[in-house]
Amino acid sequence: MKVKRWMAKYASGMMAFMLAVIAGQIATAGCLYCYYQPKEPEGLKKFVRNK
Questions:
Q1: How far apart are CA 45 and CA 1, in angstroms?
Q2: Ramachandran angles phi, psi of 38, nearest 5°
Q3: How far is 4 from 25, CA to CA, in rounded Å?
Q4: Which of 15, 20, 26, 30 stands 20 to 30 A from 42 (CA)?
Q5: Using CA atoms, how far apart are residues 30 and 36, in angstroms rounded to an integer?
Q6: What is the DSSP track for 25-37?
Q7: pTM, rounded to two decimals
Q8: Model confidence over 6-24: pLDDT tens digits?
Q9: Residue 33 has pLDDT above 60, yes or no
Q10: Strands (DSSP E) along the chain, which ranges?
């Protein structure tokens, strides 16, 4: 009976916390993917200047 009462009291909060942590990790990984830019080739720099 104690376990059932404990689950009813805290399970939803724990699930929401875990969902927020997982969603935060996914969002962070996506941002790192979007903002990563390798070095520009020299040809691209010349193209942008001449444009």
A1: 70
A2: -70, 175
A3: 31
A4: 30
A5: 10
A6: HHHHHHHHHHH--
A7: 0.47
A8: 888 888 899 999 999 998 8
A9: no
A10: none
